[in-house]
């Protein structure tokens, strides 16, 4: 075991990971001075810690990103295409594969996940047979008296409270506690009483439990995380904790909790961003209240870029651009689809007001958190995870941690970034259609023509406006070879 990066109390730090959903780089004030929603708590995190200006989600959508964060392994190596809904499964994380929760638990941590899971679960029918299918009819077949055999509590977490998939746009609206659904659905959701606005149209007509309020989900998650911190302070103060708080905000539909409705002048989605920021503030206040603040590494980030409806309507109605200053949005391989607002705070270890301009991928949380705990990355896991602890501690001294970064779409189309160069091994965005509404107005002629791939120099052209594949064929060929080699080898670390 490695020596832990000890706190002033002589033990490894607590770790609080806050993962927002569909929050764009331009949605946060400290990353976008033109943002129309105040984010004072996130801005405070930046002022008191480190801002990552070149951080990337492993994928342009949620399921593969979450798998990659938990395992330190790019999800395309698993082979799944798309995302889960309803009773979709089984768990992408194979039994026996190391997870960051399991690594930290092995290092003596108390581990908990509160919020959205979305990495697949095995629900059973009345015969005890696995369902493992998306859609409404599959949810109707679930026998809720049976435990879930591959829940987060079977993948390294001591405790879990949350939802199987997207909390408010799914076929199953019910909370899971541990490996069971204590209050099963009682009927189909009645959408008549829900808000109606341009940011509300993603709510699927799924089955809903009586205790599941679609407009208060994030408030429930917050209370559960606060309860975890209260209990830890009362009975486990000498044990480090890993709390993974996985929000619904700001994934559509934008259903802000009652106390946040009308809180901004940027409409329902602006209110939802404000609620997310307040959630961060309340979690930080709880750390301070319990005396945990100075011994906790807080890491905040997002699972991918902002959604189509939020970007298009916020640009039109409020002059707020959640993708600013990048090209592309959620699902796109261009920067706006995966460059995410990322912050770290650890008093006494991370210098206040510091910045990291090195490319980071969220797969790197696996190795970084393990190093902070003194656990080290296990030999059989974390294949695409690099240790950024020296960067956090100001000890990197100009050393580049990563030789390259991999990117993937939800259909497993791939890209690679090395230095200033970024190579996309496909045509187009890799996700959204820009030849029809509502995105056709944002289409640009980047000179791709009939080229089968794309090459951009992000230093000279951060907006990815000019495909240089024909001007620099040798650069493209070298990056293509490097991409193919890392796919073939099964690892990039």
Describe the structure.
It is a single chain. By secondary structure, the chain is of the alpha/beta class. The protein folds into 2 domains: about 15-400, Alkaline Phosphatase, subunit A; about 405-490, Arylsulfatase, C-terminal domain, CATH 3.30.1120.10. The protein contains 10 helices and 18 strands. A 9-stranded mixed β-sheet has the order 7-5-4-10-1-11-12-2-13, sandwiched between helices. Strands 15-16-17-18 form a 4-stranded antiparallel β-sheet, with helices on one face. A 3-stranded mixed β-sheet has the order 6-9-8. The longest helix is centred in the middle third of the chain and has 23 residues, at about 265-290.
Characterize this entry briefly:
The chain is of the alpha/beta class and 493 residues long. 23% of the residues lie in helices and 14% in strands.
